[in-house]
Amino acid sequence: MGMGDLDEAANRMSIIEDQVTEYTNRLDSAFALVSSSFFVGEIGDGLGTVVINGAGDLVEVNFAPERVCETRAQELSEKLMAALASARAEKFERLRGDLKRAAREIIF
């Protein structure tokens, strides 16, 4: 292997290191964006909404009082849990999309 080959290999390695750094930065940005976001899930039949933070923690429940009074407790619980699952699914879909975009932009 000649000096030119070594220089070319060193140059390629430098490019790869830069790409890995860029990819890592993009991943960090994607996680930070999702972590600082809030996601809303609709409680079925117009009963209200749930709000989760970027960690997936429930931070708020908003009920439509006139609708809640007409709903059985078991039904309300099921719809509330479905809304929570929906908000969490939205969070994961956004993160997945951001990670896919970051991965597509890196070429080795």
TrEMBL record:
InterPro entries: YbaB-like_sf, YbaB/EbfC
UniProt keyword DNA-binding, yes or no: yes
Domain of life of the native organism: Bacteria
Keywords for the protein's UniProt record, in alphabetical order: DNA-binding
Keyword DNA-binding part of the UniProt annotation: yes
Any one GO molecular function term: DNA binding
Name assigned to this protein: YbaB/EbfC family DNA-binding protein
Source species: Actinomadura logoneensis
